[in-house]
Design goal:
By secondary structure, the protein is α+β, with helices and mostly antiparallel strands. It contains 26 helices and 23 strands. Helix content is about 40%, strand content about 20%.
Length: about 725
């Protein structure tokens, strides 16, 4: 009896135990097999995050190792993906954006719809560069306009500013319409007829509550769109704002409960050690655009990476980009990091050493601004460049007005609207009539072709009467009735005698002038690493290609640097450098070498490159050089160099323009005995070439001081003969 009861109890206990075991197995099977992958993903999303650690970009330094572009550590506001609803995420975004903007921070987003506060409506904004488009339009008009005959009376008619503005506005509208159509097609928004309908579409897509105003909703939508474009995920956080203020950081930390999923991270921030100095050369960086990412992701770029957008930052991107590290961290459910589980440090990019001298660059920029302001006013413009004669390395290059890369984003609209076009690199992209700075080239052509020799005499008779229909005069003759009389080529360069070069140019012919201009790099690329305008040499072919007619008398204007000739300041510097190298043309370059930080290994070395060679005889070279010496001792640049304690050679130029005072130019070199540095300067509407020559003088002074810090009191200037000059 007792045994039976015991047996039944044992069976009941066994059944209960078996049922519990089976229930456990069923539950474990459900958790690990049926729902295992889902729970695993949730666990990983809640507990562990693995993401990249941004590598610092390589530094850019001057020839002496002085930093021009470097890195500092800055704070970023970063979203981590956590388990949250759309409503919760949208509210966090709204609060975070409001906080960042309260302390003048910039939100990282490329959503093309903004809220127009003035009109109280949404509007498209694709960030078109109106400033650059305006310059492109001006240059296009200059290149394509019909050239008036030199045999006709020259009239002051050219680019109509209002017409250019209208054309630019039209181009911007057309381009924006094109980008709008492409963006709407890409996002399948063609079914909507108004912009508000598109905004409503995104509002519904991201479940943005109606409690938010249209402006607030657009802020949230723009961030949600950026998150989606950047593949926001557990392992790919989204940087809401970079380089935020200490106040922003403090607020996020103090109010962490209001910002679930938001962390403050420390990352390298690009900064420009010398402020706006050399902005057009160095360029700037920015976040990868969606269209850029499609091409760059195969190279290992992430959606939120920073890349070079223009200037050397863009040209040297492959060298400056580092190798990102990574870290794996344990996170709380609120998105806060609790501990680092694993990490790999980032590897910095390579260091770029330039040919620039920071001190010389600073001196040139200061002088250019000062002389432009004096010659014109603060709204004036111009450019200058200094080149190493022996290698073609650019020692300094300035374009005025300029901009500050550090404030580019916040002042973007202001920069676009500025009529002075500060984003435009006039040294490489601005084209100007060379005026009398072209005369040494005409002299070399005549000498090398045997039309004249250094002792040949041409008698200046005031009015050049070879052609019946076109009889130009020397400036000295038209202003005083005097002439330069019988002079040779060196004397003609020294006094800038138009008559001499009219006659020489006619004998040489336009074909030979164009041929030699090509030898010396005029109308050709200089070889520099940055984008540049090729300019244009006057010729019947170019005139006819632009719908004009070439007349025989046009060669006279071409010989003195007028006519259709349009060159960049960089080309003028290259041309004079080629003269000083007796016909050997070196390519201009800004980069000296690229080095590895750790190994100090030279990854890239830019050796001097000969682009062309057309040897000048020693006798002819000395005749032209002597003429350029006369310019600074007794000619048009005498005033600028009267007190110089070193010898210089140079040539001034004045070019007529239709929309204001003349453009003024100067090209020169120093020291005279063994030239080391060439400087070319252009001041738009500067009226008097003294201002351009003064920029060169102050640049030479700075160069000599850098080369030899100990000042010398010995004056070596020579030739005190006063000679009247004719600078056309």
């Amino acid at each position: 009896m007792d045994n039976n009861i015991l047996a039944r109890r044992f069976i009941i206990l066994f059944v209960i135990l078996a049922g519990l075991i089976i229930a456990c197995f069923v539950r474990l099977f459900d958790l690990q097999v049926v729902k295992g992958s889902g729970y695993k993903e949730q666990a990983e999303q809640r507990l562990i995050r693995a993401y990249s650690v941004k590598a610092p970009r390589g530094e850019i330094v001057d020839k002496n190792g002085k930093p021009l572009v470097a890195n500092r550590m800055g704070y970023i506001v970063q979203f981590q993906k956590i388990d949250t609803t759309d409503a919760e995420l949208n509210e966090t975004i709204y609060k975070a954006v409001k906080l960042v903007r309260a302390y003048d921070g910039e939100i990282n987003t490329d959503f093309p719809i903004i809220y127009n506060e003035k009109e109280k409506i949404p509007a498209y904004d694709f960030g078109l560069d109106e400033s650059i488009m305006k310059n492109d339009e001006k240059n296009r008009k200059k290149d394509n306009k019909n050239k008036s005959s030199a045999a006709e009376e020259k009239e002051a008619s050219s680019d109509d500013e209002s017409e250019v503005d209208i054309d630019v506005e039209k181009s911007i509208v057309e381009k924006q319409n094109q980008m709008m159509t492409e963006w709407e097609a890409e996002n399948k928004l063609n079914v909507y007829s108004t912009l508000r309908e598109i905004v409503q579409h995104f509002r519904e897509k991201y479940k943005v509550d109606e409690k938010y105003t249209e402006q607030e909703a657009l802020e949230i939508i723009s961030v949600r769109y950026a998150m989606a474009s950047g593949n926001f995920s557990a392992n790919n956080p989204y940087a809401l704002a970079s380089d935020v203020s200490e106040e922003t950081v403090q607020q996020v930390k103090e109010r962490s409960a209001e910002f679930p999923g938001i962390n403050i991270e420390v990352e390298p921030i690009r900064y420009y050690a010398e402020g706006s100095m050399a902005a057009h050369i160095l360029g700037r960086t920015g976040k990868i655009y969606a269209e850029e990412y499609q091409e760059l992701r195969e190279k290992g770029y992430g959606m939120n990476d920073i890349i070079g957008k223009d200037g050397l930052e863009k040209v040297l991107e492959d060298y400056l980009k580092g190798v990102d590290g990574y870290k794996s961290v344990e996170m709380s459910r609120a998105g806060g990091a609790t501990q680092i589980l694993e990490s790999q440090p980032a590897k910095s990019g390579k260091k770029a050493i330039l040919t620039l001298d920071a001190e010389l660059q600073k001196a040139m920029e200061a002088s250019l601004q000062k002389n432009i302001t004096t010659a014109v006013n603060r709204s004036g413009a111009g450019a200058a460049i200094a080149v190493d004669v022996k290698s073609g390395g650019v020692l300094a290059m300035a374009s005025y007005p300029s901009y500050d890369p550090a404030t580019f984003n916040e002042k973007y609209s202001e920069l676009l609207k500025a009529k002075s076009n500060p984003l435009f690199n006039r040294t490489l992209s601005g084209t100007y009539s060379p005026g009398s700075t072209f005369k040494p080239l005409t002299a070399i052509t005549g000498l090398e072709e045997g039309i004249i020799d250094p002792k040949s005499i041409i008698v200046d008779r005031g009015k050049y009467t070879y052609y019946d229909s076109y009889q130009p005069t020397c400036l000295i003759y038209s202003s005083t009735g005097a002439t330069h009389g019988a002079i040779n080529v060196s004397e003609a360069i020294g006094v800038s005698c138009n008559y001499f070069f009219y006659d020489l140019g006619r004998q040489v012919g336009i074909e030979k002038l164009a041929e030699y201009a090509g030898y010396f790099g005029l109308g050709k690329n200089t070889g520099i690493e940055l984008p540049e305008n090729t300019g244009m040499m006057a010729s019947p072919e170019n005139r006819e290609a632009n719908g004009g007619i070439w007349y025989p008398g046009d060669v006279l204007q071409a010989a003195i640097g007028q006519s259709d000739e349009m060159f960049t300041p960089a080309q003028l510097a290259s041309y004079i450098t080629t003269v000083l190298n007796r016909g050997k043309r070196y390519g201009l370059h800004l980069v000296d070498r690229v080095e590895d930080y750790e190994t100090k290994e030279t990854i890239l070395k830019k050796e001097p490159e000969v682009l062309d060679e057309h040897e000048i005889s020693e006798e002819n070279y000395q005749a032209v050089k002597d003429g350029m010496r006369r310019v600074v001792t007794s000619g048009t640049a005498k005033g600028a160099f009267a007190s110089a304690k070193y010898k210089v050679g140079g040539k001034t130029g004045t070019a007529q323009v239709s929309d204001g005072a003349d453009n003024v130019l100067f090209v020169g070199f120093a020291p005279y005995e063994d030239p080391e540095i060439v400087v070319a300067v252009v001041i738009e509407h500067g009226a008097n070439s003294h201002f351009a020559a003064s920029v060169a003088r102050e640049t030479f002074d700075a160069y000599m001081k850098i080369k030899n810090p100990e000042p010398t009191d010995k004056k070596t200037d020579d030739d005190d003969n006063d000679t009247e000059e004719d600078d056309a």
